[in-house]
Amino acid sequence: MPGHESNDPTRSTPGDDPALAGRLADGDEFALREIMNRYDRLVRYTIFRACRDRCTTDPHWLDARASETWSGFVQSARRQGFRPPDNLATYLMQIARNKCRDALRIAGAILSQTVSGDDPALSQLASEQEDTAAVAERLDDLAALRDCMAGLDERDRALCGQLPLIMERRWKEAADNLGLAESTLRTRWDRVLRTLRDRLGKKTG
Amino acid sequence: MANAPHNQDWLERLMAEAAQAEQAGVFQATQIETAGLLSRPVVRPSWFRRHQHALVGLPVAACLAFVAVLGTLHYGVPDSLTPVTVNGPNGDINMTSNRSAAVGHRTADLLMSCFSGPGREFVSAECAVADLDSDGDVDLADFSAFQLAEASGSIR
Q1: Between B2, B34, B42, which is nearest A80 by CB?
Q2: Chain B within 8 Å of A120 (Cβ-Cβ)?
Q3: What is the pLDDT of residues B39-76, one digit of tens each?
Q4: Do B111 and B132 share a domain, yes or no?
Q5: Closest to B11 (Cβ–Cβ): which among A27, A45, A193?
Q6: Residue A62: its pLDDT value, please?
Q7: To the nearest 5 percent, what fractions of chain A are helix, strand and coil?
Q8: Cα angle A137, A160, A162; round to 5
Q9: CA A99, A90, B23, A114 torsion-angle sign
Q10: Are residues B107 and B128 in the same domain?
Q11: B88 and B71 within one domain
Q12: B122-136 pLDDT, tens per residue?
């Protein structure tokens, strides 16, 4: 499971998820940090998947929903009679999706004062059922690819900047933007993909 | 990843998603004051929350009881039982009940309260009325006979 690297020497010994959730219920701050360390990225990725358009257009949307998710989780855990869920990742993903749904509803309610009709993102969110393991695996792939892309040289990273055009096979436009010949761009792009594929293979086995 | 198709489209789509995720801030850490979150008082369910089932259930039960009392006052309590004949699955079955509209209701009530199961004696003498097939118990056979009689309107 991808998580943020933590160098906090005061971090408690990692236990299994239910035990951590149980400790959180007792007010253990280190348990909360450890859970966040394990699942914050998954929570953020779940929010990104649930409201991709919002996340890419509003820079604060993802942060706001992530904060609400963690606040909601802590509130649930601190409630009397809280029973730690068997699958903490699934539980957190559910909270994250619910927070997105609530926020979309509120945004939709404000919007519907001027525009009629439901928010399509909301109806899409309601119909989606996601498999926790599949989402986590996809996130692993993305994180690995991100690392591989970071290792590319300046020239190859510039090519990656033209990805939207390249994906639509608009080679000429992309080549013009980079000041290259189309054939050169195609050759270099093939090489970039090969490099990334090799690095990904090594990284993920 | 092991089973993922490593073709160009797949890799390009993954790259596009990674770029979008990066732009949206998926790979950043959520900045939240953990100590502040935990310092909030523990949420205890309110008195209403803890007793909401009773608060809803009791008025409903009171309403049902009120309706039952009104019904009893209006229709009266059947005090005399008269013989009636029911067309059972194995021929006519003699049973007793009063001659009012409460025939079916009373027998149904008796069936419910006297249900003992096959081969087991019923608990009180009054339950003999519910033994529609006269085999010494009140079981599903009696209930079936009653349903058939009710459905066909053969209580006469």
Answers
A1: B42
A2: no
A3: 776 666 677 777 788 888 888 999 999 998 888 887 77
A4: yes
A5: A193
A6: 92
A7: 75, 0, 25
A8: 125
A9: negative
A10: yes
A11: no
A12: 667 777 777 777 777
B67 and B94 within one domain: no
Correct CATH for A17-129 of 1.10.1740, 3.40.50, 2.60.40, 1.10.3470: 1.10.1740
Using the CB atoms, write b or e for A85-118: b if 16+ within 10 Å.
beebbebbbbbbbbbbbebbeebbeeeeeeeeee
Cross-chain residue pair A204–B2, CB shorter than 8 Å: yes
With 0-12 / 13-18 / 19 or more C-beta atoms within 10 angstroms meaning exposed / middle / buried, residue A84 is middle
Question: Is B4 a domain residue?
Answer: no
Q: Is residue B144 part of a domain?
A: yes
Residues B105-124: what's their mean pLDDT?
Answer: 74
Contact A62 B25 (CB under 8 A): yes
The SS3 of residue A82 is coil
Q: Which residues pair with A137 in a beta bridge?
A: none
pTM of the model: 0.60
Range of the structural domain that residue B53 is part of:
34-75
* Residue B40 amino acid letter: R
Residues B115 and B99 in one domain: yes
User: Is residue A42 over pLDDT 90?
Assistant: yes
ipTM over 0.85: no
